[in-house]
Design brief:
Order of helices and strands: HEHEHEHEEHEHEEHEHEHEHEEEEE
Low-confidence stretches: 1-41
Distance between the termini: 32 Å
Number of strands: 16
Mean pLDDT: 89
Largest sheet: 7 strands, mixed
Strand content: 15-25%
């Protein structure tokens, strides 16, 4: 029987929460936020924010924060990206933004290596290059904006899974979004390290399984896992659609008391699965604040200002700057559970 213990939020960041609903205009750059066109030509700061893909709740919420920051700070924000988590599509998007003469290009790479040539091109043309959500080539970026401390986050997810399993022994599996996503891989590596160092009785039944950032794919992959591994006791799912697909399969099979599921999902999406225990805990942060922070720091860079450790960013909170002077940590993660998920509007 799976241990039914409530996890408490490791940290709940204060501030207004924005719903993540993207419009057609938003996906193409949100014309409503553009008071002028041709960034730089008339002195207006033009900041381009490129997610891994548009149209999923996580990046919709990030868009809402980025657009709000543009309004609050008086800068033009273009939020646009590929429709699939595909590096080649992302390169085309960035090429177009370079031709628009943006002042800052902030990107969440699907594949960091594939984007390096086009990011170098942007930098060579005088565009400030940043990454957010997922690291790019660190030799090319001025700032690397992270949601959380990746190592601590991955370890926390592993610890949470073991707690929800109610045992330190048993078979588990790992679902991920894309095999090349640097942030997901970093979290997975940290989670595996935590298990190897502290839970030797946990057995990983297969290599990480890609789900293409799609809930339906995660659902099918989980059904396959259940069929192939009748003794499976836990699933860690990385990327926001993956935990939902895994929980959907658990719910359908009625295995809430046999297989624990934890993962990186949004509270609103998670609620139906948290309610009946198909998903035990969703562990994330506030993505709207990540979008807001990215734009706020981008504006500061244009104005020649670098972030400081402990700096309080209005609308976000206190941030951490690492000794490299480049890595910014927004804050600790939050555990979303059956008890607190309804408190969040994203």
């Amino acid at each position: 029987m799976k241990k039914v213990t409530g996890l408490f939020a490791t940290a709940i960041l204060a501030g207004g929460l924005l719903a993540g609903c993207v419009s057609e205009e938003g996906a193409a750059g949100n014309e409503s936020t553009k008071s002028n066109s041709g960034g730089g030509d008339d002195g207006e700061v033009k900041i381009a924010v490129v997610p891994k893909l548009i149209g999923i709740p996580y990046f919709n919420a990030s868009e809402a924060g980025a657009i709000q920051a543009g309004k609050d700070l008086g800068v033009e924000v273009v939020y646009t990206g590929p429709t699939e988590p595909d590096a080649a599509q992302q390169v085309k998007v960035i090429e177009d933004l370079i031709s628009q003469n943006v002042d800052v290009l902030a990107v969440a790479p699907n594949d960091a290596a594939s984007l390096s040539p086009v990011l170098k091109k942007a930098k060579d043309q005088g565009i400030i290059v940043m990454d957010w959500d997922t690291p790019a080539d660190q030799s090319l970026v001025e700032l690397s904006v992270h949601q959380i401390d990746d190592e601590a986050y991955g370890r926390h997810i592993a610890q949470s899974l073991v707690e929800q399993m109610g045992t330190e022994e048993g078979q588990i599996a790992i679902l991920t979004g894309g095999l090349s996503a640097a942030n997901l891989n970093t979290w997975i590596d940290a989670a595996k390290k935590e298990l190897e160092e502290n839970y030797p009785g946990i057995e990983l039944v297969t290599d990480k399984i890609a789900t293409d950032e799609k809930q339906q794919v995660a659902y099918q992959k989980t059904l396959d896992l259940i069929k192939s591994n009748p003794d499976l006791k836990g699933i860690m799912a990385f990327s926001t659609p993956a935990p939902l697909g895994a929980a959907q399969a658990i719910q359908e099979k009625g295995l809430q008391d046999k297989i624990a599921v934890v993962g990186t999902a949004l509270p609103k999406d998670s609620s139906p699965y948290l309610e009946d225990g198909a998903l035990d805990v969703a562990i994330l942060w506030e993505p709207d604040k990540l979008g807001y922070l990215t734009v706020a720091l981008a504006k500061d860079l244009v104005e020649g200002e670098k972030p400081e450790n402990g700096q309080n960013v209005e609308g976000v909170g206190e941030i951490e700057l690492w000794e490299d002077g480049k890595t910014v940590i927004m804050g600790p993660p939050t555990d979303f559970t059956k008890e607190n998920a309804a408190d969040y509007d994203f």
